[in-house]
């Protein structure tokens, strides 16, 4: 069950990242985040009411609040790092956040077997290579590296926090709702400050009609991201966190394959090798 839900997490996160990347080509990234998460809040609110999840209210939801605050900071840091580039360095470094939940699992006493330790090493190497790291070329700005590491450990922190925010399915719905409400509040505040400083919430010359036309895509991105957090939480609660975290972090491979299928982007040799290593690591971990 852990392997199944963790791999579902990678699929959902990979597709959400791909969809979000496409949307940010037309609309500012912060607007995409706030709009997609607002849709997720509405849907989750209905689910919480329908399932009676609100009765699961308790102190564990502070983990969801923390995840909701960390998430937007990590995402903004990642987008700024991508802007500074080069993306071929930033993207693989961003996947190193898997060290956070893996470290938490080890601190809690989890001890994977030899095959699983080998799988962790192989899978992490594959994840990094799947991003297509640039091993030569222009020097990387120190600020880009710092922002990427902040983003990576922020993403890893969200994984660790959301896994602790609930202990039942209805409680998970409530935890995800609280996380997304916090996301929207934090992201909305950041968007407001950006606009006040002269930034734009929409492309120049565009109105709200652009967002309305993109609603289906925004809904997909927001709901896929929510579902990924949910499946990761289930995976982490039903098996070793070390295994769940690594298998859930194979999403760069999914994003790369989606770009190949939809945009006809060719995989570089290093990306293809990374995808293969990630698959081998997945088999070792699942076993």
Provide structural commentary.
The protein has 287 residues and is mainly α. The chain contains 13 helices and no strands. It has helices at residues 2-23, 29-51, 61-84, 87-94, 99-107, 114-130, 142-162, 169-196, 208-213, 215-237, 241-248, 251-262, 269-286. Helix 1 runs antiparallel to helix 10 (215-237). The protein is globular. It starts with a helix and ends with a helix. 51% of the residues are buried. The mean pLDDT is 79.
SSE topology sketch:
Layout: H1 2-23, H2 29-51, H3 61-84, H4 87-94, H5 99-107, H6 114-130, H7 142-162, H8 169-196, H9 208-213, H10 215-237, H11 241-248, H12 251-262, H13 269-286
Helix pairs in contact: 1-10, 1-11, 1-12, 2-8, 2-10, 3-4, 3-7, 3-8, 4-6, 4-7, 5-7, 5-11, 6-11, 6-13, 8-10, 10-11
